[in-house]
Design brief:
It comes from Azospirillum brasilense. This protein has 387 residues and is an alpha/beta fold. The protein contains 13 helices and 12 strands.
């Protein structure tokens, strides 16, 4: 059985940090919209109090480099120092859908400038004394390529350019990794993308091939980064360090419409998906995002925890589970109150409301995993069965 050791806690908290421009041109800044920029110290202390000693959070490139080559770290340094004081380790997203306004994302200069920014960030954290640096260079390359390159849902608001955008973001991720490692060879890299399952509808068996092709598309970005596909992009296996998988209740669907629910016998267990990702790349896996909304939050965490335990028992190296977003947030499209968090949106005085059912589910999850990992190897059921 695998024992997670990579992060400071098996369960992590993730702060929504998207900075993209919507279809109407408005830039989002979810760190500011949730008050996390002002309340980082309190938020990290809350995470630590719940045993979440590692988190995902964001570096807001559009605020830091408003002038090419000049970095204003005032939006980041208070967060870095607050995390250190709270004893919380951060995986920093460097490009979470957004970039400075003067850059053309389609041009080679985007890759070059992002690499310089990534290297400068890594040098800053090194000089700040961060002992276990970790970075996600470009968040959700596959989803971004689809939403921004094919569907015009957000920047760069393109159609039929998804493959081109995916290649560009892969180049940027590779260049950023080189720059990060040059500044700080200790850095761990988490490559984050959704994992999915796609099946043909029961009445459309002829779609089986197309459904499998759609399912396998989830691996394209990782394959490119690892040099297994499109090697001219510069990928190499060493660029795949930790595979971050994002998984929600709607990540399984029928081709041409319809979500596959957990009560459907065709629903694929999440543990099987985790095992397939590990078999494909041979790298440790982090559940980099998972969560639900409203009353579904606690039952969903119960389910994911059970599947992660099953994967660990099968010796799949799952290094952690990140509850995401850990704070309620205003919806991207309409500012609606999305009740996804362990804590609700802050009030005018900076207070946050704890969602008790999810807190109880987190305690159950931590206890279940803790009990499993605390068993002496000689008494673990899977080892007894093998003897």
């Amino acid at each position: 059985m695998h024992t997670p050791t990579l992060f400071d806690s098996v369960f992590l908290g993730g702060f929504e940090c998207s900075t993209h421009r919507r279809h109407d041109g408005r830039r989002l800044d979810l760190i500011a919209a949730t008050g996390h920029d002002r309340l980082a110290a309190q938020d990290y202390q809350r995470m630590a109090a719940h045993g979440l000693r590692s988190v995902r959070d964001g570096v807001r490139w559009h605020l830091i480099e408003t002038t090419p080559g000049h970095y204003d770290w005032s939006s980041l340094l208070p967060m870095v120092r607050a995390a250190r004081e709270a004893g919380v380790r951060v995986i920093w997203d460097l490009c979470h859908y957004g970039w400075p306004d003067d850059i053309d994302v389609w041009r080679p200069a985007f890759v070059e400038r992002f690499a310089r920014f990534a290297g400068a960030t890594a040098a800053l954290l090194r000089d700040e004394g961060v002992e276990a640096p970790a970075y996600c260079p470009v968040n959700e390359i596959s989803y971004w390529a689809w939403a921004g390159g094919d569907m015009k849902r957000f920047n760069p608001m393109a159609e039929r350019r998804g493959a081109e955008l995916k290649h560009q973001l892969v180049r940027a991720s590779i260049a950023a990794i080189d720059a990060i490692r040059a500044a700080d060879p200790r850095a761990r890299i988490v490559q984050v993308d959704p994992v999915i399952n796609v099946l043909p509808r029961p009445d459309r068996k002829g779609d089986a091939g197309a459904a499998e092709e759609a399912r396998l598309a989830q691996y394209e970005a990782w394959d490119m980064i690892g040099g297994y596909a499109w090697p001219g992009l510069g990928g190499k296996p060493e660029y795949l360090d930790v595979i971050g998988v994002n998984y929600y209740s709607d990540n399984q669907w029928f081709l041409k419409g319809g979500t596959i629910g957990r009560d459907d016998p065709r629903y694929r267990p999440f543990a099987d998906i985790l095992a397939e990702v590990h078999r494909r790349y041979g790298r440790p896996v982090l559940v980099a995002e998972t969560g639900a909304e409203g009353d579904a939050r606690a039952p969903w965490l119960d389910y994911v925890t059970g599947e992660v335990i099953a994967a660990l028992k099968a010796n799949v190296p799952v290094e952690g589970v990140c509850l995401y977003p850990i704070l309620d947030y205003p919806g991207w499209a309409n500012d609606r109150h999305c009740e996804t968090g362990l804590y609700g949106l802050c009030d005018e005085d900076g207070g946050r409301c704890l969602y008790q059912p999810l807190a109880a589910a987190l305690e159950r999850a931590q206890a279940r995993v803790g009990a499993l990992l605390s068993q002496p190897q000689s008494t673990r059921p899977e080892l007894q069965a093998a003897q």
